[in-house]
Amino acid sequence: MSRALHQRAVVADAHNDLLIAITARPPHRWAGYFRERWLPQLREGGVDVQVLPVFIDDRFRPEGALRETLRMIECAHTLAEGNADEVRLCLDGDDIDAALADGRIALVLALESAPGLDANVELLPTLHRLGVRIASLAHWGRTALADGSGEDATGSRLTEAGVLALREMERLGILFDVSHLGASGVAHVLELATRPVLATHSSARALLDHHRNLTDEQLRGIAATGGMVCVNFLGEFLATARADRTVDRLADHIVHIAEVIGVGRVGLGPDFIKEVCDDTTPPCCEDVEYARLLVPGLEGPRGLPLVTEALVRRGLPEGDVEKILGGNVLELFRKELGRPA
């Protein structure tokens, strides 16, 4: 039953860093490499909507951050053009619906922490023209716009440029992503936001007290904007003991968030890293024992049907499972993606 449910559901992955792995290849290999290595996995996992974050390794910061941001955006366009029979780079909900109607995977571009932007908020319209539709302002540490959750002890809010970035994103129709943002920054965003806020890959702090997870209060604040939370699959954010990092523990986080803010506000933000780390070289993966971060069976997109099975075992109605798998993300994207204020 769960397999058939998974196959008929719209499945949306709000965070997969596959662009890092693809851009590690020469440009002439980008489209072919995606087709050979990533497309089969996405198809086997039933992925219909795939958010592609642009994440810039430390080795490119600060001088090369904008160049690498543009290079990764070009990669997304190149792989979409080279696989136009299978995928479509989408700018709004209409594009996504058209892709799904054609049986293609809808790709959506995102910025993760936006180091290439620095404090130059006037570049957001440029990035919007290039296809960016989701953006966050920080990763683990400090940026010119905000502090990441690894800097929670500073208690800092958005900088002046960060506030301007939020306003500009709302004007353009770029969804604001609070995943990785420090606690005070999240509170600041929720004070200022006039449009829905998204967490692309965050789990529940009530179940594991990790700074990368969201408290129940933060969850409610995000839901109050009309936004939603896509749950991170990395074991480090699900349970302390490695043995407890299971698909069922992931289901615990999904169900908890649904109980706090409603099943209509929850999605999936897997953050698959195994193949990205396998395919790239230091400094991206230096000193990272990434195997301990993985949930067995959920090392990549092929494992996504296991999530459906776990939610069915929990007794969730089929309609609720379909919402969590991707229906909620699709609804949010239809309403907000690329829609100017």
TrEMBL record:
Name the domain of life.
Bacteria
Q: One Pfam family for this entry, by name?
A: Peptidase_M19
Matching entries from PANTHER family are given as: DIPEPTIDASE (PTHR10443:SF12), MICROSOMAL DIPEPTIDASE (PTHR10443)
Instruction: Identify this protein by name.
Output: Dipeptidase
